[in-house]
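During the no-cost extension, the postdoctoral fellow (Dr. R.K.) reprocessed legacy sequence entries with the updated structure-token encoder. One reprocessed record is reproduced below for audit purposes.
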Amino acid sequence: MHVVKLSLINFKNYAEITFDFSQQINCIVGSNGAGKTNLLDAIHYLSLTKSAFNAVDSQNIRFGQDYFMIKGLINKDGDGGTEVLCALQKGKKKTFKVNKSEYEKFSNHIGQFPVVLVAPDDSEVIKGSGALRRKFFDSMTSHINREYLEDLVRYNHFLKQRNALLKKFNEGFRFDEDLLLPYNKELIKLNKRIHKGRLDFSRRFNSLFELVYQELSMGKEVARVVYESSVDTGNLEQQFENSLEKDRVLERTTLGIHRDDFKFLLNDKSVKKFGSQGQQKSFLLALKVANYKLIKEFKDFNPVLMLDDIFDKLDAQRISRLLKIISKDDFGQIFITDARKERTVQLLKQLNLKATFYSIESGSLVK
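Re-encoded structure tokens follow.
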């Protein structure tokens, strides 16, 4: 899969621009604030229907304008390409179309044109809360498992409704346990299915992840991802009953897969607590590369790989090992952003890799 053409109108700092991309390596270079990351974010929109960096769509409209539009031609199977369009006008609902046909639900698009983005802020997946790690793994799983995504959407819907009812009980609404039963029934069923989906995914993912980390660390360390859940899927009905009083007091559902976590281990110790900055960066890169490989394994085609400003965050050895991994024949279209063109040129030259360069300045292409 590769992005053939990308057109932007009033998106972030871009007024109007069109790019024609190479099927292999595309290097976006320019000073900080030029719009390199914004370009990758536009591709992220076409893949996942949303920004990777700003959850408020309206804030991605160029200052002083009323709308933005992102349109891409994406070739997945050699048929000439699929037109994907995302547009938003202030005060109106976001529009998302594929070959001019609009989706009923944006979630139906997830997994159709997968991308893997490696960005500087990704370190929060390791350093941050369990919620960030759940979101990270939910996104990866949803790319390859449509039923998992649908179950997750339904789970969040019923969880929100149950929590709202628990809050009403504490606001003077007469407590009636029977009113909770329909939500309990749905959540118990979805807990079991999502738990199984996460367990199956983590097992398959781990085997790829361990190999990638071994390659990045040159076999010096053993890395693992361990899925942790407080849910006992064999006894969920009793667990829900036992947690009812606690739920009433706290006004929220205290049991379920929304409290799961993924433990990141290096030589059986927490990477978050004991890993050096370099080890954490290698761990993160291995997570992303393993994600890429797993998507390819399930989809039978290459997703797009986007490396955003990572050369400033990694030492020379890790950069070299990463580039050696992604320069193999099993990788497809790659986007690399860098503020220093000469650095990228030198790194690619060392590995005998050819690339197409695009110089960006204040949201414009510089010849």
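The domain at 1-114+303-367 is CATH 3.40.50.300 (Rossmann fold). The radius of gyration is 22 Å. The remaining legacy entries will be reprocessed before the final report is submitted.
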